[in-house]
Amino acid sequence: MKKFIWAIALVFVILATGIFIGWMMNKTGKPATSISSESILTALHERGFLVTQTSVMNESVKISTESSSIWQKILWGQSIQASGVVEVNMGVDLAKTVAGDVVVYGNKVTVTIPPAQIFNSRLVGDINVENTQGILKRLFESDDGYNQAMAELIKTAENVSTSTDMMDTANAKAKEEIQRLVGYIAKDKTVEVDISK
């Protein structure tokens, strides 16, 4: 009977020792993940194109292919007036960042991103087109002017979006967004974001 009690006590001591060792190992915590420029660069590449600014503009354009000759104007002339709402999305293509763009030094992370650019542009809703054509143009070329008007509206909206003020705003928002994104990865480090020239 004494042997049985000793056996139970030995099993209990072994189990208690195993539980204590396991608790001590778990108490020390998991090893801290190392933050490197490669891990930050990978996270940026996974993000792809980061849209930081969306502009919705009501644009109107006038396209005229009329010449100074009155007969040319009457026969082949064309004048298109169009208006519509265009959405332009701008942001930063993070896939363009390279290894030298992310530097981790001590408690500081410096990220250099490309300048903001147009991601896409599209018409929102219908486009209003008034197309005045010469007699022969109407007979031989049935062009309603829609495609030409749409291209011109988008081009005009993109020109407005790439003005200095709009680009500065898009770049500032991109810097804030990247700073926040990298801050999630490198929580204990100071993040500085620059725009490449």
Helical fraction: 40-55%
Integer-rounded radius of gyration = 32 Å
Number of strands: 6
Largest sheet: 3 strands, antiparallel
Task: Please report the distance between the alpha carbons of the first and last residues.
Answer: 86 Å
Uncertain spans: none
Whole-number mean pLDDT: 80
The general outline is: elongated
The main sheet orders its strands as: 1-2-5
> Which percent band covers the strand fraction?
25-35%
Please outline what is shown here.
This protein is α+β, with helices and mostly antiparallel strands and 197 residues long. It has helices at 2-27, 37-47, 70-76, 135-140, 146-161, 164-185; strands at residues 49-64, 78-93, 102-105, 108-113, 117-133, 190-195. The strands form two sheets. A three-stranded antiparallel sheet has the order 1-2-5. Strands 3-4-6 form a three-stranded mixed sheet, covered by helices on one side.
Would you give an account of this structure?
This protein has helices at residues 2-27, 37-47, 70-76, 135-140, 146-161, 164-185; strands spanning 49-64, 78-93, 102-105, 108-113, 117-133, 190-195. By secondary structure, the chain is an alpha+beta fold. The chain has 2 domains: 1-31; 33-195, no CATH class. The chain has a 3-stranded antiparallel sheet with strand order 1-2-5. The protein has a 3-stranded mixed sheet with strand order 3-4-6, covered by helices on one side. The longest helix is centred in the first third of the chain and has 26 residues, at 2-27. The protein is elongated. The termini are far apart. The mean pLDDT is 80.
